[in-house]
Amino acid sequence: MRVLFTPVAATTTPLFHMVPLAWACRAAGHEVRFATPPELTGEIVAVGMPAVEVGHGYKIMDGVLRSRGGRRVIEAPADRWTDSGLVGSADEPATAPPADEHADLRNAAMVPLVEAATRMAPDLLRYTEHWRPDLVVTDSMVFAAPLVSALRGVPLVRQTWGPDVMRMISQPLQGRAADGDVRAQWPRGLPELYDHYGVEVRNDYPLRTVDPWPTSLQFPDLSGRLPMRFVPYNGTATVPEWTLDRPGRPRICVTWGTSTAALGGDEAFVLPRVVAALADLDVEVVLAVSHDDLAKLGPPPGNARVAANVPLHLFVETCDAIVHQGGSSSLLTAACHGLPQVMIPQTADNPFNAANFAASGASVTLDAAEAGTEEIGAAVTRVLTEHTYRAAAEKVHAEIAAMPSPAEIVRALEALV
């Protein structure tokens, strides 16, 4: 069969989550292609997959910053999320807004995704008119994918990459039917896009949802869920020789997402506090951060090893704990290896990831605005020395290992076609 993958192009995270399943499809003898905006072309080609460029001339991250009036702001912490969505903001009280204000918040947040769908739709439909896929696997944020499913008559499957945050927003990839007037619940401009192509406005286009998030932590009512074992993939690189050795003291991975820097801005840069907190501990620190972040950090402390842009999956199994911003790739990669975690979330879905994963008992979450070096150092010491964190991390590791492999999921996808 022909399988078309359409990850959202805001960051590389959704693409990297799809790579193991795409490889499994290829290994099973299926033809695979990825359709995304051009900014992901290099990463797609690097993993040996054909890239189809769609939605030229628009970058989602640029749209995110423009939708905020050019301001880089910190997202609300996880306790401001409700079953209805986000309430309040990082600098305002967490009081529930009136219905129309909630709609304004939703519409403002979804502007970049609706615009991306509008740009992608003509290219996707033109391409799939000639290269007829038998199945489309998409991200919950690629609102153009259901148009292909409806107009080309092919099954649609979505793939999540964390707690199902998008279930809070009525849209075509929510995965379950909505009550009431669906059109009024969709982000502004999206119903009109579907009208333009003569496609029905409804929430339940995906037949199944491929989900790597641990079952014990995911929402229990995730529609059509296909649990899939998370296989870490964080990019390509040469394996560093130092990964063969284990230091005589705990090794701590410190990593930070590129989108965190873009959304939070330099004024909210937490990484210097993290590095300073670990400088006086008897540990080896592996700084797996971007070159840009390293430049802002200045000279690393004496107990730090620089691993700029080295994919986590190449070395994290040699670590004893991890400190990061709460991104799902970092979180799940560490969880696959049973590492206790310290998270300092700031932006996007990271506070939600951290709050959800905290229920496992395998992590400590700190407030990015308030945590000082002493508190950060104490949190790292806790996860290294208190047995409960390691035991909880091992339990999550065992749960992930028991989930069906990508190869098994391919067989389930074949049955849909």
UniProtKB/TrEMBL annotation:
CDD domains: GT1_Gtf-like (cd03784)
Domain of life: Bacteria
SUPFAM superfamilies: UDP-Glycosyltransferase/glycogen phosphorylase
Pfam families the UniProt entry points to: EryCIII-like_C, EryCIII-like_N
Keywords: Glycosyltransferase, Transferase
GO biological process terms, semicolon-separated: antibiotic biosynthetic process
GO molecular function, one term: UDP-glycosyltransferase activity
Boundaries of every Erythromycin biosynthesis protein CIII-like N-terminal domain copy: 23-257
Domain Erythromycin biosynthesis protein CIII-like C-terminal: start-end pairs: 273-416
Record's keyword annotation contains Glycosyltransferase: yes
Transferase recorded as keyword: yes
PANTHER family (UniProt xref): STEROL 3-BETA-GLUCOSYLTRANSFERASE (PTHR48050), STEROL 3-BETA-GLUCOSYLTRANSFERASE UGT80A2 (PTHR48050:SF13)
Family: Belongs to the glycosyltransferase 28 family.
Protein name (Swiss-Prot/TrEMBL): Glycosyltransferase
Source organism of the structure: Actinomadura kijaniata
